[in-house]
Design brief:
Elements (H helix, E strand, L loop, with lengths): L1 H26 L4 H21 L1 H13 L6 H24 L1 H6 L5 H11 L3 H16 L4 H24 L4 H25 L10 H30 L3 H33 L7 H24 L7 H9 L1 H19 L3 H26 L1 H18 L30
Helix pairs in contact: 1-2, 1-8, 1-9, 1-11, 2-6, 2-10, 2-11, 3-4, 3-7, 3-10, 3-11, 4-7, 6-9, 7-9, 8-9, 10-15, 11-12, 11-13, 11-14, 12-13, 12-14, 14-15, 14-16, 15-16
Length: 416
Amino acid sequence: MIRLALPIYVELLTAVVAVGLIDLLWVSGLGEGAIAAVTVGTTAEYLAYGLFLAVPTGITVLVGRRDGRAPLGPVIRTGWLLWAVCSVAVAVPGVLLREPLAALFTDDPALTADFFLISLGGLPVYYAQTVVDGVLKGLGDTRRPMRHAIICNVLVVALDPLFIFGFGMGIQGAALATVIARAVTLAIALLHLVRLRVPAGHGLTTGEVLRTGFPMSGDFLARAVVGMALVEIVAGFGTAEVAGYGIGQKIMLAGVMVFYALRQAAMIRTARSEAVRSPLLLGLGSGAAVALVLNLLAAPVAGMFTGDPAAAVSFLRWMTLYLVPFGGLIAVGGVLQASGRGGRLLAATLAGFAVQLPLAYALSSWLGVTGVWLSMAAGASISLAAAPARRAGAPAPAHDRAPRSTRTAADPPSGR
């Protein structure tokens, strides 16, 4: 599990966390308004990713189940069809409605709308990369997606200062640098996918991919929506609190990606009928370890982004109560998803949010932003209690445990 999860963690850290942190680090010199705009912009991008997540998740699980047993071509073709549909359905309205969307979350919507114009317009590139990586992960190959993420991250490091300051584009430069870096990385990834020479086949429908991936997408989308709602609540306490929340979230994501790496590793192994032992205990232990590290590093790391890190440090301190149950919940999610019990996980997540959001509004009126942080801990604890964690280590359904057929020369390598 750890060997499989480590490349995934590096991939997530560089492709999801580091890019956002680099953008924040560079735009921090432009003021709190720019920090808040990038915070809202990247949160919206996570929401848009959640709308598409069912596709790469379904691809990973179905490729894992079919590898060595059935043709992979139908899965990949269906993935690209869904990519085209979702790209148009999400990116076009996002760009056209960028100004009213930005006005929902900030008192200065112009900066955020400028960021949306490029970041939401570049979503098809982001979506395409997840399709390619979903295929590779289904084959048990987590190292190539990691390399793709590192390449993208290096390009963002080089391009951000050039576009933000060199070309004088400000926060739009940060968004454009990210889209260009992702486009170059996608070209490299597509070359590798073409070389796999996946054999053709038939018999798969778009419904099968969507049904397989929907619980994970629903879980992610619910978290993104709640995240946007929390931004709105925190915004009521001023721009400084939004900036502190944004900085704290970016720092915390570096630790949270440990949980998501464990979830993907558990999902891949379960789909491929490989052993998964105790993801719950591993997730709870990881949550405690991440909370400890964040408490130790909160002040110095937050100080890298702002001269007054008090709001971000306070957020990270309170997140100790949230990270332990959240780590356990996310880690067991991979097994539940790949073994056909993802709907139960989604139900547990929604149950936690049904308590968290009203509690956030109620406690924030009494305790200020601290009440928001306490509501997050309560929601995660309720979700973990409601999840079928005791059976999370159960084997995959019988139809998924059939022995794999012998490979032919035309079959793609498993990557294991």
